[in-house]
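anyone else get weird line breaks when pasting these?? whatever heres mine. first is seq + tokens for prot A
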Amino acid sequence: MWLMDVKKDDKWIEQKPILWLLTERFQEVSIWLLLTVALIIFATALMKQMADPWVVEKLQFILDEYQDRVFKNLNVPIDHNRVTLFKYKRSLFFRRHWLESGVSMWGLLKTRRFCGDYLVPYMRSGHMTLNTKTIFYVDSENSAKSQGVAGMAWSKRGVVILPDLPELTSTSRPRTKESYASVTKSSVRFLERYLAEGRTPSRAMAAMPVECNGKLWGVIVLDSLDPLGVTAQSVEHYTLTVALIGHLLERA
């Protein structure tokens, strides 16, 4: 903004009164022009982040129906059977990585990764709030490093089903916790923290990748406290539902 530094007695403008008048007026309103431009940029970025309300409503309806159909014959409360849509986010800083062993013994980095790509909660079925801290680290270059059932589905770009998982309580043997952590690609530390909060780890899980415009957008995760709550049949019957979700996300 070199015009802000122009003065009336500058040689190139002192003999041009009309040009100086225009420059002076610009200097007077420049701060407001800059603020207006900044607000426009901010509003545009915000609008891009906000999903179409119609799309959000339809997605919520589909997830709710999905929950009702997949888990309809189970003898557990409906809030123990969840359908959660996770969205892929690139380059997030200092996110907790409870699903893996500490990567550093120093302060913040002991439980957080400096930077990484994650699957983060986007929407959940039912009337439950999306109040979850669970995120899944994904590594597109090395699938072995991707975390959880969501990370497995993302890396293999296919369905992952984990039925009949062992029941875990705060008194479960270390070997049982290690077995559960190994199968679900989580960690004993994560499970112990989960149990300490009074929560019960899922007995059955499944995850399916969601594509949007031909690219991976995220993952849908089903989880239940019933060991047979998620089966191959229940997942296969609703692959079209997942495709419809991806189609709707093109408008989000």
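and prot B, same format (seq, then tokens)
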Amino acid sequence: MSREMSRKLSTHLLAWRHCALLMRTDLIQSLSERTFSLSSSQNTWILKRQYQLKLIDLEHRHPVRRQIQMSDQVYEVVECTHEKPTPPIQLLLLTDVPAYGKAGHLVTVPRNIARMFLLPEGKAEYVTPEGIAVFEAKKREEALHPELQSSSATSLSTVAHLSDILLLVPMNMHNPWKLERWHIRSALRLIGVWSPNDDVIELPQQEIRGPHLEMHGKSFSVFIRINGKERAHLLCQIDLRCKDPADALPVLDTFKPDQFEPLFPGAVSDENKPTTLKRRLPTDRPVVPRHQVVDF
């Protein structure tokens, strides 16, 4: 072998070793990144043969020739468990959970809500015979004291929602008016809250008449009776509006403020505490935890 051929062969060998090292490094990196995808998945696939399997004559079969053909290994997918929607799960509530129920109630919730919120936080447990016995005792106790139980499963969450919002009541800036209950009901309908009638709305004892430009953005409290039992405190603001854009007043913020200027002394109830919600900024981006992305 000549010196030139030996030099070329050694160059090719070095290049091949370098490529092999790169391929090995990429393979290890890809395996480390795909650890979860390579893990075993507990799914069930139900298959059926696409072609009917022929019977084999065991007495006259050929000793070498293959008895099962390639067409006998063609299958069709009938059902896959991970593509089927998971059914909800039944739990026994240990504490009062707004929008779901009170302590001792049996509720049916999605599996992701149960496994990521209710069960880890100790607000619910799986249904057991012992839990059913406690549930029956809880029902008997509530029957003896009806004043301690809420009117419905969603009444507490409705009270919390109304207490955390700021209601803008649109009023005319030029024509004289007097604030009435139907004004509050119309303003609630604008934000998607439906009131059955005006009797559930309690206005301040002092009459509110206008228009006055200094009333724009001033706050006052009203009370909403829910199912004739719970009482929600709703913070409202006068929003003076007109048809001419040239005469329009500054647009009010719909987020409940920490400090409010009352319309008159005592217009804002002491029970209207500041909201516990955080003001959402334009730069805020929703962050979804990894365990909340996929449903169980």
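btw re prot B: The two ends are 67 Å apart (CA to CA). Confidence is low (pLDDT under 50) at residues 33-39, 274-296.
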